[in-house]
Amino acid sequence: MANHKSALKRIRANATKRLRNRYQAKTTRTFIKRLRAAEDKKTGVELLPKVISMLDRLAKKNVIHKNKAANNKSKLTKFVNGLK
Q1: Every domain of the chain and the residues it spans
Q2: 11-49: buried (b, 16+ CB within 10 Å) or exposed (e) per residue?
Q3: Which InterPro entries would you find in this protein's record (predicted)?
């Protein structure tokens, strides 16, 4: 166990950030699944900007890699454009 005050604080801060990052990443994955389950274009067009915003936020905070976010956004946009 850490002995310095700063190390103890760092442990607490890391635990808090880890929980927040996991929550945001899980929420984003859920919305991606909802978007992929969409069967009509109207639903897809409504969800796409929200999902893209979530992916950008995760990439900005280094929860996911920026290229992973870009790849996901590209695939999802292609998917929505292909809906009828």
Answers
A1: 7-82
A2: eeeeeeeeeeeeebeeebeebbeebeebeeeeebeebbe
A3: Ribosomal_bS20 (IPR002583), Ribosomal_bS20_sf (IPR036510)
Q: Select from 40, 42, 49, 58 the least CA-distant residue to 76.
A: 49
Helices (DSSP H) in the chain: which residue ranges? 5-37, 41-60, 66-82
* Token digits of residue 39: 């069967």
Domain 7-82 has CATH 3.30.420.40: no
**Could you give phi then psi for residue 26, rounded to 5 degrees?**
-65, -40
The answer to whether the predicted template modeling score (pTM) of the entire model surpasses 0.85 is yes
